[in-house]
Design a protein that fits this description.
The structure holds 2 protein chains of 2 kinds. Chain A is mainly α. Chain A has 16 helices and no strands. Chain B contains 13 helices and 2 strands, in the order αββαααααααααααα. Classes of the chains: A mainly alpha, B mainly alpha.
Protein backbone atom coordinates (compact mmCIF):
# COMPACT_ATOMS: atom_id res chain seq x y z
CA UNK A 1 0.00 0.00 0.00
CA UNK A 2 3.05 2.16 0.53
CA UNK A 3 3.54 1.95 -3.22
CA UNK A 4 1.01 4.65 -3.94
CA UNK A 5 3.32 7.16 -2.28
CA UNK A 6 6.65 5.95 -3.49
CA UNK A 7 6.04 5.04 -7.08
CA UNK A 8 3.43 7.61 -7.99
CA UNK A 9 4.76 10.13 -10.42
CA UNK A 10 2.97 13.29 -9.40
CA UNK A 11 5.06 16.15 -8.11
CA UNK A 12 3.05 16.36 -4.92
CA UNK A 13 3.66 12.74 -4.10
CA UNK A 14 7.37 13.22 -4.75
CA UNK A 15 7.44 16.17 -2.42
CA UNK A 16 5.71 14.21 0.31
CA UNK A 17 8.12 11.37 -0.22
CA UNK A 18 11.03 13.78 0.03
CA UNK A 19 9.81 15.15 3.35
CA UNK A 20 9.21 11.65 4.60
CA UNK A 21 12.85 10.80 4.07
CA UNK A 22 14.02 14.09 5.55
CA UNK A 23 12.17 13.18 8.73
CA UNK A 24 13.38 9.58 8.79
CA UNK A 25 16.98 10.67 8.38
CA UNK A 26 16.72 13.59 10.78
CA UNK A 27 15.57 11.38 13.64
CA UNK A 28 18.18 8.73 12.90
CA UNK A 29 20.97 11.30 12.73
CA UNK A 30 19.73 12.94 15.89
CA UNK A 31 20.17 9.67 17.73
CA UNK A 32 23.34 8.45 16.08
CA UNK A 33 25.45 11.62 15.70
CA UNK A 34 25.96 12.31 19.40
CA UNK A 35 26.78 8.66 20.03
CA UNK A 36 29.22 8.62 17.13
CA UNK A 37 30.85 11.79 18.42
CA UNK A 38 31.14 10.24 21.86
CA UNK A 39 32.79 7.09 20.52
CA UNK A 40 35.22 8.96 18.26
CA UNK A 41 36.14 11.39 21.03
CA UNK A 42 36.75 8.54 23.41
CA UNK A 43 39.60 7.35 21.16
CA UNK A 44 41.33 10.73 20.87
CA UNK A 45 44.01 12.28 23.02
CA UNK A 46 42.84 15.17 25.15
CA UNK A 47 44.87 17.51 22.98
CA UNK A 48 43.21 16.27 19.79
CA UNK A 49 39.81 16.46 21.41
CA UNK A 50 40.28 20.07 22.49
CA UNK A 51 42.12 21.38 19.46
CA UNK A 52 40.46 19.73 16.51
CA UNK A 53 37.01 19.79 14.96
CA UNK A 54 34.34 17.58 16.57
CA UNK A 55 34.25 14.98 13.84
CA UNK A 56 37.92 14.67 12.92
CA UNK A 57 39.28 11.17 13.41
CA UNK A 58 42.05 10.51 15.93
CA UNK A 59 45.62 10.21 14.58
CA UNK A 60 46.18 7.10 16.63
CA UNK A 61 43.19 5.33 18.18
CA UNK A 62 43.89 5.66 21.90
CA UNK A 63 42.86 2.35 23.41
CA UNK A 64 44.54 3.31 26.67
CA UNK A 65 41.66 5.70 27.39
CA UNK A 66 39.59 2.58 27.92
CA UNK A 67 42.22 0.91 30.05
CA UNK A 68 42.38 4.03 32.17
CA UNK A 69 38.61 4.27 32.43
CA UNK A 70 38.42 0.69 33.66
CA UNK A 71 41.21 1.12 36.18
CA UNK A 72 40.66 4.60 37.54
CA UNK A 73 36.89 4.55 37.71
CA UNK A 74 36.73 0.95 38.89
CA UNK A 75 34.21 0.16 36.20
CA UNK A 76 34.80 -3.57 36.45
CA UNK A 77 33.49 -3.69 39.99
CA UNK A 78 30.46 -1.57 39.10
CA UNK A 79 29.58 -3.72 36.11
CA UNK A 80 29.85 -6.77 38.34
CA UNK A 81 27.51 -5.20 40.91
CA UNK A 82 24.99 -4.31 38.23
CA UNK A 83 25.03 -7.87 36.89
CA UNK A 84 24.62 -9.44 40.33
CA UNK A 85 21.79 -7.13 41.36
CA UNK A 86 20.09 -7.23 37.97
CA UNK A 87 20.19 -11.00 37.57
CA UNK A 88 19.05 -11.77 41.12
CA UNK A 89 16.23 -9.24 41.04
CA UNK A 90 15.13 -10.53 37.63
CA UNK A 91 15.10 -14.20 38.65
CA UNK A 92 13.12 -13.59 41.83
CA UNK A 93 10.81 -11.13 40.14
CA UNK A 94 9.95 -13.46 37.29
CA UNK A 95 9.42 -16.42 39.62
CA UNK A 96 6.98 -14.42 41.76
CA UNK A 97 5.24 -12.85 38.78
CA UNK A 98 4.81 -16.25 37.10
CA UNK A 99 3.05 -17.53 40.19
CA UNK A 100 0.75 -14.54 40.51
CA UNK A 101 0.21 -14.40 36.74
CA UNK A 102 -0.80 -18.07 36.79
CA UNK A 103 -3.31 -17.56 39.58
CA UNK A 104 -4.86 -14.45 38.05
CA UNK A 105 -5.00 -15.96 34.58
CA UNK A 106 -6.26 -19.46 35.41
CA UNK A 107 -8.52 -19.18 38.44
CA UNK A 108 -11.75 -17.38 39.13
CA UNK A 109 -11.30 -16.36 42.72
CA UNK A 110 -13.10 -13.56 44.46
CA UNK A 111 -11.61 -10.11 43.99
CA UNK A 112 -9.44 -11.32 41.12
CA UNK A 113 -10.04 -8.40 38.80
CA UNK A 114 -9.78 -5.90 41.63
CA UNK A 115 -6.43 -7.33 42.52
CA UNK A 116 -5.28 -7.18 38.94
CA UNK A 117 -6.42 -3.57 38.76
CA UNK A 118 -4.19 -2.84 41.73
CA UNK A 119 -1.28 -4.33 39.81
CA UNK A 120 -1.97 -2.23 36.72
CA UNK A 121 -2.34 0.94 38.78
CA UNK A 122 1.07 0.08 40.20
CA UNK A 123 2.57 0.63 36.75
CA UNK A 124 1.37 4.24 36.75
CA UNK A 125 2.40 5.18 40.28
CA UNK A 126 5.25 7.70 40.11
CA UNK A 127 7.76 5.55 41.96
CA UNK A 128 10.19 8.44 42.38
CA UNK A 129 7.65 10.02 44.68
CA UNK A 130 8.01 7.05 47.00
CA UNK A 131 11.67 7.72 47.76
CA UNK A 132 11.02 8.57 51.41
CA UNK A 133 9.03 5.44 52.30
CA UNK A 134 11.41 3.22 50.31
CA UNK A 135 14.35 4.69 52.14
CA UNK A 136 12.64 4.12 55.49
CA UNK A 137 11.41 0.59 54.67
CA UNK A 138 14.80 -0.57 53.42
CA UNK A 139 16.40 0.87 56.53
CA UNK A 140 13.84 -0.76 58.82
CA UNK A 141 14.51 -4.11 57.17
CA UNK A 142 18.20 -3.63 57.89
CA UNK A 143 18.98 -3.71 54.18
CA UNK A 144 20.43 -0.23 53.74
CA UNK A 145 23.65 -0.37 51.75
CA UNK A 146 23.36 -4.05 50.84
CA UNK A 147 22.85 -6.03 47.65
CA UNK A 148 19.75 -7.46 49.31
CA UNK A 149 18.10 -4.07 49.65
CA UNK A 150 18.52 -3.22 46.00
CA UNK A 151 17.48 -6.69 44.87
CA UNK A 152 14.33 -6.63 47.00
CA UNK A 153 13.35 -3.16 45.86
CA UNK A 154 13.98 -3.85 42.16
CA UNK A 155 12.16 -7.14 42.38
CA UNK A 156 9.16 -5.44 43.99
CA UNK A 157 8.83 -2.44 41.70
CA UNK A 158 8.86 -4.72 38.66
CA UNK A 159 6.08 -7.01 39.91
CA UNK A 160 3.16 -5.09 38.33
CA UNK A 161 4.75 -4.97 34.89
CA UNK A 162 5.94 -8.59 34.91
CA UNK A 163 2.59 -9.87 36.15
CA UNK A 164 0.74 -7.98 33.44
CA UNK A 165 3.05 -9.37 30.75
CA UNK A 166 2.96 -12.96 31.99
CA UNK A 167 -0.78 -12.95 32.65
CA UNK A 168 -1.31 -11.68 29.14
CA UNK A 169 0.55 -14.64 27.71
CA UNK A 170 -1.06 -17.19 29.99
CA UNK A 171 -4.50 -15.90 29.00
CA UNK A 172 -3.74 -16.99 25.46
CA UNK A 173 -3.16 -20.62 26.50
CA UNK A 174 -6.41 -22.51 25.84
CA UNK A 175 -8.22 -23.55 29.00
CA UNK A 176 -8.91 -26.97 27.43
CA UNK A 177 -5.27 -27.96 27.72
CA UNK A 178 -5.35 -27.33 31.41
CA UNK A 179 -8.69 -29.04 31.87
CA UNK A 180 -7.33 -32.09 30.12
CA UNK A 181 -4.37 -32.12 32.48
CA UNK A 182 -6.76 -31.73 35.40
CA UNK A 183 -8.83 -34.73 34.30
CA UNK A 184 -5.61 -36.72 33.96
CA UNK A 185 -5.05 -36.08 37.64
CA UNK A 186 -2.62 -33.20 37.35
CA UNK A 187 -2.81 -31.04 40.49
CA UNK A 188 -2.36 -27.30 41.01
CA UNK A 189 1.42 -27.44 41.02
CA UNK A 190 1.64 -29.99 38.24
CA UNK A 191 -0.43 -27.81 35.94
CA UNK A 192 1.74 -24.83 36.81
CA UNK A 193 5.09 -26.52 36.28
CA UNK A 194 4.26 -28.91 33.45
CA UNK A 195 1.57 -27.10 31.49
CA UNK A 196 1.50 -23.35 32.01
CA UNK A 197 5.15 -22.49 32.60
CA UNK A 198 6.45 -24.23 29.47
CA UNK A 199 3.67 -22.78 27.32
CA UNK A 200 4.16 -19.27 28.71
CA UNK A 201 7.90 -19.37 28.08
CA UNK A 202 7.93 -16.48 25.62
CA UNK A 203 6.03 -14.25 28.02
CA UNK A 204 8.41 -15.11 30.82
CA UNK A 205 11.45 -14.37 28.67
CA UNK A 206 9.88 -11.06 27.65
CA UNK A 207 9.16 -10.10 31.25
CA UNK A 208 12.66 -11.14 32.31
CA UNK A 209 14.34 -9.13 29.56
CA UNK A 210 12.28 -6.11 30.35
CA UNK A 211 12.89 -6.44 34.06
CA UNK A 212 16.64 -6.85 33.65
CA UNK A 213 16.86 -3.79 31.44
CA UNK A 214 14.94 -1.78 34.02
CA UNK A 215 17.29 -2.94 36.80
CA UNK A 216 20.36 -2.31 34.70
CA UNK A 217 19.33 1.26 33.93
CA UNK A 218 17.90 2.17 37.31
CA UNK A 219 19.58 5.08 38.99
CA UNK A 220 17.36 6.83 41.53
CA UNK A 221 17.07 4.05 44.09
CA UNK A 222 20.56 2.70 43.56
CA UNK A 223 21.74 6.19 44.43
CA UNK A 224 19.40 6.34 47.40
CA UNK A 225 19.92 3.08 49.27
CA UNK A 226 23.54 2.22 48.51
CA UNK A 227 26.31 4.42 49.84
CA UNK A 228 29.49 2.37 49.83
CA UNK A 229 31.77 2.50 46.83
CA UNK A 230 32.07 -1.27 46.74
CA UNK A 231 28.38 -1.76 46.03
CA UNK A 232 27.87 0.99 43.47
CA UNK A 233 26.09 -0.03 40.31
CA UNK A 234 27.25 1.23 36.97
CA UNK A 235 24.56 3.93 36.76
CA UNK A 236 25.56 5.43 40.10
CA UNK A 237 29.14 5.09 38.95
CA UNK A 238 28.51 7.35 35.96
CA UNK A 239 27.49 10.08 38.33
CA UNK A 240 30.78 9.80 40.21
CA UNK A 241 33.26 9.22 37.45
CA UNK A 242 32.01 12.17 35.42
CA UNK A 243 33.26 14.31 38.30
CA UNK A 244 36.36 12.22 38.89
CA UNK A 245 37.61 12.74 35.34
CA UNK A 246 36.79 16.44 35.41
CA UNK A 247 39.43 17.47 32.87
CA UNK A 248 40.39 14.12 31.42
CA UNK A 249 37.56 14.27 28.92
CA UNK A 250 38.56 11.40 26.71
CA UNK A 251 38.76 8.88 29.56
CA UNK A 252 35.38 10.05 30.80
CA UNK A 253 33.93 9.46 27.35
CA UNK A 254 35.50 6.01 27.28
CA UNK A 255 33.84 5.27 30.61
CA UNK A 256 30.46 6.45 29.33
CA UNK A 257 30.88 4.28 26.22
CA UNK A 258 31.68 1.25 28.39
CA UNK A 259 28.54 1.86 30.42
CA UNK A 260 26.36 2.16 27.32
CA UNK A 261 27.70 -0.78 25.32
CA UNK A 262 26.07 -3.58 27.37
CA UNK A 263 22.65 -1.94 27.01
CA UNK A 264 23.01 -1.56 23.26
CA UNK A 265 24.32 -5.12 22.84
CA UNK A 266 21.57 -6.55 25.01
CA UNK A 267 19.02 -4.60 23.05
CA UNK A 268 20.26 -5.77 19.69
CA UNK A 269 20.17 -9.41 20.88
CA UNK A 270 16.84 -9.27 22.71
CA UNK A 271 15.16 -6.68 20.53
CA UNK A 272 11.98 -8.67 19.93
CA UNK A 273 11.49 -9.40 23.63
CA UNK A 274 12.08 -5.84 24.66
CA UNK A 275 9.71 -4.43 22.09
CA UNK A 276 6.98 -6.96 22.74
CA UNK A 277 7.35 -6.49 26.49
CA UNK A 278 7.06 -2.79 26.05
CA UNK A 279 4.03 -2.94 23.82
CA UNK A 280 2.15 -5.61 25.75
CA UNK A 281 2.84 -3.86 29.02
CA UNK A 282 2.10 -0.42 27.70
CA UNK A 283 -0.98 -1.17 25.66
CA UNK A 284 -2.56 -2.99 28.53
CA UNK A 285 -1.07 -0.85 31.28
CA UNK B 1 -11.32 -22.50 36.33
CA UNK B 2 -12.99 -22.48 39.71
CA UNK B 3 -10.44 -23.28 42.39
CA UNK B 4 -11.16 -26.52 44.23
CA UNK B 5 -10.84 -26.68 47.95
CA UNK B 6 -7.30 -28.02 47.86
CA UNK B 7 -6.40 -25.51 45.15
CA UNK B 8 -7.38 -22.67 47.42
CA UNK B 9 -4.53 -23.11 49.79
CA UNK B 10 -2.04 -23.43 46.96
CA UNK B 11 -3.57 -20.38 45.32
CA UNK B 12 -3.10 -18.31 48.43
CA UNK B 13 0.50 -19.48 48.71
CA UNK B 14 1.14 -18.59 45.07
CA UNK B 15 -0.38 -15.13 45.31
CA UNK B 16 1.21 -14.33 48.65
CA UNK B 17 4.68 -13.16 47.57
CA UNK B 18 3.35 -10.80 44.90
CA UNK B 19 0.64 -9.46 47.19
CA UNK B 20 3.10 -8.91 50.04
CA UNK B 21 5.46 -7.01 47.74
CA UNK B 22 2.64 -4.91 46.30
CA UNK B 23 1.45 -4.04 49.79
CA UNK B 24 4.91 -3.31 51.09
CA UNK B 25 6.21 -1.32 48.12
CA UNK B 26 3.11 0.24 46.61
CA UNK B 27 0.13 0.45 48.95
CA UNK B 28 1.91 1.16 52.24
CA UNK B 29 4.35 3.70 50.72
CA UNK B 30 1.49 5.71 49.22
CA UNK B 31 -0.33 5.74 52.55
CA UNK B 32 2.96 6.53 54.29
CA UNK B 33 3.49 9.55 52.08
CA UNK B 34 -0.04 10.74 52.82
CA UNK B 35 0.48 10.47 56.58
CA UNK B 36 4.02 11.82 56.82
CA UNK B 37 3.14 14.80 54.62
CA UNK B 38 1.11 16.01 57.61
CA UNK B 39 4.01 15.72 60.06
CA UNK B 40 7.00 17.73 61.04
CA UNK B 41 9.67 15.06 61.19
CA UNK B 42 13.39 14.63 60.64
CA UNK B 43 13.34 10.84 60.86
CA UNK B 44 15.04 10.74 64.26
CA UNK B 45 13.19 12.74 66.89
CA UNK B 46 9.52 12.01 67.48
CA UNK B 47 7.26 13.47 64.79
CA UNK B 48 4.88 16.34 65.47
CA UNK B 49 1.51 16.76 63.83
CA UNK B 50 1.76 19.68 61.51
CA UNK B 51 -1.63 19.61 59.72
CA UNK B 52 -1.33 21.26 56.32
CA UNK B 53 1.56 23.53 57.22
CA UNK B 54 3.99 21.58 55.04
CA UNK B 55 1.81 22.26 52.04
CA UNK B 56 1.50 25.96 52.72
CA UNK B 57 5.29 26.11 53.18
CA UNK B 58 5.73 24.24 49.91
CA UNK B 59 3.63 26.59 47.86
CA UNK B 60 5.40 29.59 49.40
CA UNK B 61 8.77 28.16 48.40
CA UNK B 62 9.80 29.60 45.03
CA UNK B 63 12.00 26.59 44.35
CA UNK B 64 8.97 24.34 44.62
CA UNK B 65 6.56 26.41 42.55
CA UNK B 66 9.25 26.67 39.91
CA UNK B 67 9.63 22.88 40.05
CA UNK B 68 5.91 22.32 39.57
CA UNK B 69 5.81 24.71 36.63
CA UNK B 70 8.80 22.96 35.07
CA UNK B 71 7.15 19.57 35.47
CA UNK B 72 3.90 20.82 33.97
CA UNK B 73 5.77 22.27 31.00
CA UNK B 74 7.63 18.99 30.71
CA UNK B 75 4.46 16.92 30.74
CA UNK B 76 2.78 19.18 28.21
CA UNK B 77 5.77 19.17 25.87
CA UNK B 78 5.99 15.40 26.16
CA UNK B 79 2.29 14.84 25.51
CA UNK B 80 1.85 17.66 23.02
CA UNK B 81 5.07 17.60 20.97
CA UNK B 82 7.02 14.42 21.59
CA UNK B 83 4.07 12.05 21.20
CA UNK B 84 2.71 13.71 18.04
CA UNK B 85 6.21 13.52 16.52
CA UNK B 86 6.35 9.87 17.53
CA UNK B 87 2.95 9.32 15.94
CA UNK B 88 4.12 10.92 12.72
CA UNK B 89 7.13 8.62 12.61
CA UNK B 90 5.01 5.61 13.54
CA UNK B 91 2.70 6.34 10.61
CA UNK B 92 5.66 6.77 8.26
CA UNK B 93 7.56 3.68 9.41
CA UNK B 94 4.51 1.44 9.61
CA UNK B 95 4.22 1.89 5.85
CA UNK B 96 7.49 -0.05 5.80
CA UNK B 97 9.78 2.20 3.74
CA UNK B 98 13.18 0.83 2.81
CA UNK B 99 15.26 0.06 5.92
CA UNK B 100 12.38 0.60 8.36
CA UNK B 101 13.63 -2.08 10.73
CA UNK B 102 17.02 -0.41 10.94
CA UNK B 103 15.44 2.95 11.69
CA UNK B 104 13.12 1.46 14.27
CA UNK B 105 16.13 -0.08 16.02
CA UNK B 106 18.04 3.21 15.95
CA UNK B 107 15.14 5.34 17.17
CA UNK B 108 14.78 2.99 20.10
CA UNK B 109 18.42 3.27 21.24
CA UNK B 110 17.83 6.11 23.71
CA UNK B 111 15.22 3.96 25.41
CA UNK B 112 17.69 1.21 26.29
CA UNK B 113 20.49 3.56 27.29
CA UNK B 114 19.97 4.66 30.87
CA UNK B 115 18.70 8.15 31.52
CA UNK B 116 21.80 8.91 33.53
CA UNK B 117 24.19 7.87 30.72
CA UNK B 118 22.20 9.92 28.21
CA UNK B 119 22.37 12.88 30.55
CA UNK B 120 26.13 12.40 30.87
CA UNK B 121 26.37 12.38 27.10
CA UNK B 122 24.32 15.55 26.77
CA UNK B 123 26.24 17.26 29.52
CA UNK B 124 29.29 16.74 27.34
CA UNK B 125 27.43 17.98 24.27
CA UNK B 126 26.27 21.16 26.02
CA UNK B 127 29.67 21.85 27.61
CA UNK B 128 30.53 25.49 26.90
CA UNK B 129 34.19 24.93 25.97
CA UNK B 130 34.46 21.39 24.71
CA UNK B 131 30.92 20.44 23.76
CA UNK B 132 29.70 19.14 20.43
CA UNK B 133 26.98 21.76 20.10
CA UNK B 134 29.26 24.76 20.38
CA UNK B 135 31.84 22.94 18.25
CA UNK B 136 29.30 22.51 15.47
CA UNK B 137 28.14 26.11 15.75
CA UNK B 138 31.73 27.36 15.47
CA UNK B 139 32.46 25.00 12.59
CA UNK B 140 29.43 26.40 10.75
CA UNK B 141 30.60 29.96 11.35
CA UNK B 142 27.89 30.68 13.88
CA UNK B 143 30.28 30.89 16.80
CA UNK B 144 28.54 33.95 18.22
CA UNK B 145 25.59 31.69 19.09
CA UNK B 146 27.80 29.44 21.19
CA UNK B 147 27.17 29.85 24.89
CA UNK B 148 27.14 28.10 28.22
CA UNK B 149 23.88 26.28 27.58
CA UNK B 150 23.45 24.71 31.00
CA UNK B 151 24.77 27.70 32.93
CA UNK B 152 22.57 30.43 31.46
CA UNK B 153 19.36 31.43 33.22
CA UNK B 154 17.52 31.61 29.92
CA UNK B 155 18.99 28.57 28.20
CA UNK B 156 19.31 25.98 30.95
CA UNK B 157 15.75 24.75 31.17
CA UNK B 158 15.09 24.64 27.41
CA UNK B 159 18.41 22.79 26.98
CA UNK B 160 17.49 20.21 29.61
CA UNK B 161 14.01 19.80 28.16
CA UNK B 162 14.64 19.82 24.44
CA UNK B 163 17.27 17.17 23.85
CA UNK B 164 14.97 14.43 24.84
CA UNK B 165 11.88 15.58 22.92
CA UNK B 166 13.32 14.19 19.70
CA UNK B 167 13.87 10.75 21.17
CA UNK B 168 10.60 9.40 19.89
CA UNK B 169 11.40 5.68 19.69
CA UNK B 170 9.54 4.54 22.78
CA UNK B 171 6.15 5.96 21.82
CA UNK B 172 6.73 5.26 18.16
CA UNK B 173 7.21 1.54 18.80
CA UNK B 174 4.05 1.35 20.91
CA UNK B 175 1.99 3.08 18.23
CA UNK B 176 3.56 1.09 15.40
CA UNK B 177 2.53 -2.14 17.09
CA UNK B 178 -1.00 -0.81 17.21
CA UNK B 179 -1.03 0.48 13.63
CA UNK B 180 0.09 -2.86 12.23
CA UNK B 181 -3.01 -4.50 13.72
CA UNK B 182 -5.30 -2.26 11.65
CA UNK B 183 -7.08 -4.27 8.98
CA UNK B 184 -5.42 -3.50 5.65
CA UNK B 185 -8.75 -3.60 3.85
CA UNK B 186 -9.47 -0.12 5.21
CA UNK B 187 -6.46 1.21 3.38
CA UNK B 188 -7.19 -0.79 0.25
CA UNK B 189 -10.69 0.64 0.10
CA UNK B 190 -9.39 4.16 0.70
CA UNK B 191 -6.77 3.76 -2.01
CA UNK B 192 -9.43 2.67 -4.48
CA UNK B 193 -11.44 5.74 -3.56
CA UNK B 194 -8.38 7.83 -4.34
CA UNK B 195 -7.44 8.88 -0.80
CA UNK B 196 -3.86 10.10 -0.46
CA UNK B 197 -1.47 8.73 2.17
CA UNK B 198 -2.04 11.89 4.15
CA UNK B 199 -5.82 11.50 4.07
CA UNK B 200 -5.49 7.84 5.02
CA UNK B 201 -3.43 8.80 8.04
CA UNK B 202 -5.91 11.47 9.13
CA UNK B 203 -9.12 9.55 8.52
CA UNK B 204 -8.12 5.96 9.16
CA UNK B 205 -4.97 5.54 11.19
CA UNK B 206 -5.30 8.32 13.74
CA UNK B 207 -8.96 7.68 14.63
CA UNK B 208 -8.23 3.99 15.02
CA UNK B 209 -5.27 4.37 17.36
CA UNK B 210 -6.61 7.33 19.26
CA UNK B 211 -8.29 5.44 22.05
CA UNK B 212 -5.69 2.76 22.32
CA UNK B 213 -2.01 3.39 21.80
CA UNK B 214 -2.20 7.16 21.33
CA UNK B 215 -4.06 7.51 24.61
CA UNK B 216 -1.54 5.20 26.27
CA UNK B 217 1.39 7.20 24.92
CA UNK B 218 0.04 10.60 25.89
CA UNK B 219 -0.65 9.27 29.37
CA UNK B 220 2.76 7.66 29.70
CA UNK B 221 4.54 10.71 28.32
CA UNK B 222 2.83 13.08 30.72
CA UNK B 223 3.36 10.81 33.68
CA UNK B 224 7.03 10.36 32.82
CA UNK B 225 7.31 14.12 32.33
CA UNK B 226 6.04 14.64 35.85
CA UNK B 227 8.56 12.15 37.24
CA UNK B 228 11.70 13.67 35.73
CA UNK B 229 14.71 13.37 37.95
CA UNK B 230 17.85 11.82 36.48
CA UNK B 231 18.23 14.29 33.64
CA UNK B 232 18.14 17.39 35.79
CA UNK B 233 20.07 15.78 38.61
CA UNK B 234 22.87 14.88 36.25
CA UNK B 235 22.82 17.88 33.94
CA UNK B 236 22.31 20.82 36.26
CA UNK B 237 21.22 19.62 39.71
CA UNK B 238 18.48 22.22 39.42
CA UNK B 239 20.87 25.11 38.82
CA UNK B 240 21.16 27.92 37.88
CA UNK B 241 18.96 29.48 40.57
CA UNK B 242 16.53 26.52 40.63
CA UNK B 243 15.42 27.29 37.07
CA UNK B 244 15.75 23.62 36.10
CA UNK B 245 14.44 22.05 39.28
CA UNK B 246 11.69 19.42 39.22
CA UNK B 247 9.39 18.12 41.92
CA UNK B 248 11.35 14.90 42.36
CA UNK B 249 14.65 16.78 42.57
CA UNK B 250 13.12 19.07 45.16
CA UNK B 251 11.88 16.02 47.05
CA UNK B 252 15.32 14.42 46.87
CA UNK B 253 16.98 17.51 48.29
CA UNK B 254 14.47 17.67 51.14
CA UNK B 255 15.17 14.02 51.89
CA UNK B 256 18.91 14.76 51.92
CA UNK B 257 18.17 17.44 54.50
CA UNK B 258 16.23 14.82 56.51
CA UNK B 259 13.11 16.94 56.17
CA UNK B 260 10.78 13.96 55.82
CA UNK B 261 7.60 15.97 56.23
CA UNK B 262 8.34 18.37 53.39
CA UNK B 263 9.72 15.59 51.20
CA UNK B 264 6.52 13.59 51.68
CA UNK B 265 4.35 16.63 51.10
CA UNK B 266 6.01 17.23 47.74
CA UNK B 267 5.64 13.53 46.94
CA UNK B 268 1.94 13.77 47.77
CA UNK B 269 1.60 16.75 45.44
CA UNK B 270 3.31 14.76 42.70
CA UNK B 271 1.03 11.76 43.13
CA UNK B 272 -2.09 13.93 43.13
CA UNK B 273 -0.98 15.95 40.10
CA UNK B 274 -0.17 12.69 38.29
CA UNK B 275 -3.60 11.27 39.05
CA UNK B 276 -5.29 14.48 37.90
CA UNK B 277 -3.29 14.36 34.67
CA UNK B 278 -4.30 10.78 33.95
CA UNK B 279 -7.97 11.51 34.61
CA UNK B 280 -7.94 14.67 32.48
CA UNK B 281 -6.24 12.98 29.56
CA UNK B 282 -8.77 10.16 29.58
CA UNK B 283 -11.66 12.62 29.73
CA UNK B 284 -10.23 14.66 26.89
CA UNK B 285 -9.77 11.67 24.64
CA UNK B 286 -13.13 10.13 25.40
CA UNK B 287 -15.21 13.22 24.88
CA UNK B 288 -13.57 14.14 21.65
CA UNK B 289 -13.73 10.65 20.30
CA UNK B 290 -17.37 10.30 21.27
CA UNK B 291 -18.16 13.47 19.36
CA UNK B 292 -16.04 12.84 16.32
CA UNK B 293 -16.11 9.21 15.47
CA UNK B 294 -18.48 7.43 17.81
CA UNK B 295 -15.97 4.60 17.97
CA UNK B 296 -15.77 2.19 20.82
CA UNK B 297 -14.45 4.50 23.48
CA UNK B 298 -13.49 1.84 25.96
CA UNK B 299 -10.05 3.09 26.93
CA UNK B 300 -7.26 0.65 27.49
CA UNK B 301 -5.67 2.22 30.48
Amino acid sequence: MMGSGIRSKTAKARLINFFRWILIIFFAAYTLFPLLWLVISSFKTNYEFLAESPFSLPQVWQVENYVKALEVAGLGRMLFNSVVVGLSATLINVAIASMSGYCISRFNFRGREKMFLLFTIGILVPLNALMVPYFVIINKLGLYNTYGGLILLYCAIGIPMSTVIIRGLMDSIPMEIEEAAYIDGCGFYGRFFHVCLPLARTGIVTAATFQFLTCWNEFVFANLIVSSEKLRTIQVGIRYFTNQFSTDYVSMYAAIVISIVPSILGYVIFQEQIISGLTSGAVKG
Amino acid sequence: MKPTRSDRRALAAFMAPAVVLILLFFVIPVLYVAVVSLLKWNGITSPEFNALRNFSLLFKDKAFTRSIINNLIWALVAGGIQVPLAMLMAIILSRKPRGWKFFRTVYFFPQVISGIALAALWRSIYNADTGLLNGLLRAMGMGELACDWLGGLETAFPAVLIYWVFYVGYYMVIMMADITTIDSSYYDAATIDGATDFQQAIYITIPLIKNTSLLTCVTLASVLGLRQFEQVYMLTNGQPANTTSTIVLYLYKKLQDANYGMASASAAVLIVVGAIFIICIRRLFRERSAKISGLDTKGVL
